[in-house]
Structures are given as C-alpha cells and as structure tokens.
Amino acid sequence: MVEAGVSYFSSRDLRHAREDLEEMVTHGCTYAVHCFTETDLLYYRGAMQEVLRATRDAGLEAWLDPWGVTGIFSGESLSRFLVDHPEALQQRSDGRPAPAACPNHPEPRRFLLDWVAAAAEAGGQVAFWDEPHFDIPLWRGDRSGVWACRCGHCQERFRDFAGGPLPERMDDQVRAFRERSLIDLLAELSAAARRQGMRNALCLLPVDLEGVGLVELARRVEERWRKWAQEAGGTPADDEPWRSVGIRDWDAAAAIPDLDILGCDPYWYFYRTEPEPFVRAFTRRTAETARRHGRDVQIWVQAFSVPEGREEELALGLRVAAEEGATHLAAWSYRATESMSSIRCARPEVAWRVLGETFRELRGMEDLPS
C-alpha cells in the first residue's frame, strides 16, 4: 500500500502538535516530515523530542528534514551557521561570498554530522535530504548568471577531480564536479544516519526537462530566462543558470550506498505547466532510476501557492504519481501551508481537503467524515 505524508513546521507546542498529528492521520498520512532547523538545534531540542515521540505515538513515521541548514538544503529558514562561520561561505564566480556554506568545506560537514546525531537523538526514523544544491542566485532574483563555488577548497578538489584549474565560467565539467561534491557529502551524511539507526530519503529537483522528454517546456523556460536576463543586461548564451541547479545524474545519486528512498518534487505550478505530463515524466524517471538501485520512490506535490480554483490539480498529480509507481506520496506542506502567509495557498482549506480525500482514496481508506 502506498505511504502518504506531509511536511510540518507549524508548531513546537506539544498541545497543538498533537492535534495536528491526529489531523494528519485522519487525512490518510502515514508519516510526517518535520523541519528540523538550526533554530531547533539551538533552542528546541527537547521540544522536538517530545513532538517526535507524539508523532510515533500517533502511528506516524517520524522523518526529519535539515530545512535550510547551512544553506545547502532547501527551506524558508535562516542559517545561524553562516553567521558564525563566514570562512565556510561559498564564493561566487564574481568573487563575492554567497549566502550558503560550501559542501567541500570541512566545517559545514562537521556541523551537518552533528545535525545527524541530533536528529537521531530526537527520535527521527528517516533523514530526509531536501533538494541539496550549491548556491542558486537565480532563486533570489539574481539575473547576472553568476555561480558558486570557487573557494579554495573547491579549487583544490577540482584539481584532483579534473587535473586542472577550476574554470571561471560554468561548463559541463564544473557541473559534474559540483554534482560529485554533493553526492560525496550525501554519502557521508547518509552513512552517519544509517549508523545511528535511521533510514535515508533524498529529494532531487526536477531540472532536466529535456532528459524526461519535456522538450517544448524546456524551450519555453529557456525563452523566459533569456528575456529575463536581457532585461538585466544580458548573460552568456551558453550559461543559463537554471540548467545548473541541483543534481542531474540521478543514477549517481540513487547509487549512494545507504539511500533507501529516491524522490523528486515536480511542482508544475512553479514551472507554469500542466500537472499530468509534468508529474508523469518525472515520476517515471524517478521510479525507473530507483528500481535500478533497489530504492523506494517518493513524489511530492506542491501544496503551497496554489491559485484559487486549481486545487483539484493536487488530486490529479497524486493519482498520476501513484499510477507511475510512487511508493511514498507527499505534499508540502501541512494544511496547504496555511501558517506561512508568503506562500500559503489561495484557499488552504480547500487544498487540504483535496489532499486528505486523495490520500485516503489512494490508500483504500474511507472518505473523510463530513
């Protein structure tokens, strides 16, 4: 039977968290992905232990996400590490520091290993590695085409990797080096999580549009990027930053020895496209890759920033993912991100109802009570 879950960051108050967890259960969830932030590491470790205990008591599997931790993993959460360790910041191709730690610097690695230990101590059962990436200036509206990282650690490692100096402009060899750096980090963290009794899940960004057959969509995205970049003064024609995000070699990622679940988050609203072909293409690729390596398959749907009148698309996306072999369905986030005003759905109560009905349908459960 398919598993279903949502991410959760709404409360550290155990009274409210218990109610929320019970609501997840009535909506057909079997696991909860808790955002375990740097703020939690500093101030809420005991509270998170209580919340995770309540999660397991409710019959849900407890996942922990390093949400925004060091800036290497995605999340709308700020990083104290970056303030305390400016020496570990990534260096952009224009020489300026980036607001993210370098995966090749030893200090972020030590900090992330400490995060793993804290996650295990809190009672986490699955470590969820959320969209690992180098700095993405494009996500902050930077149209200049700069990239990272060119710090001393990356230059040294690149010389070992390629036998020559790290180029000043992005190319295929730099992309391959960055992906290898992320995979090496993930392998180290996953091994640590396994040693401490946790399973590992990895979510990859859906960036290789041509690779899954979405050629026309790739053309439209490229056209939007070129127009956007020209408005800011132009960018090298062979260096569209959206092509250099995250990890494109999914087989290398799926081959990480201690990985249990390979996932993707094909958010069609973000790409301004239709749900059916987009989710089908990326679920199919995720499932085919996962099966080659003996992993389970997780697919996320975007339950944030959903426009009014399009909530039923969430049901379609989940059904397509299930048809294509997803073993774990998931939605970001609980109650359609109602608590985060900047990206909550236009009608979170409608989107949350659709998610519950569809989770229960796909798990063969009775309808929600009216």
How would you explain this protein's 3D organization?
The strands form two sheets. An eight-stranded parallel beta barrel has the order 1-2-3-6-7-8-9-10, surrounded by four helices. It is built from 13 helices and ten strands. It is globular and about 60 Å long. The model has no long low-confidence stretch (mean pLDDT 94). By secondary structure, it is an alpha/beta fold. The protein is 43% helix and 14% strand. The chain has a single domain, classed as Glycosidases (TIM Barrel, Alpha-Beta Barrel). α12 packs parallel to α13.
Describe, in short, the structure shown.
By secondary structure, the chain is of the alpha/beta class. It has 13 helices and ten strands.
Descriptive key words:
13 helices, TIM Barrel, 10 strands, two-stranded antiparallel ribbon, 370 residues, globular, alpha/beta, eight-stranded parallel β-barrel
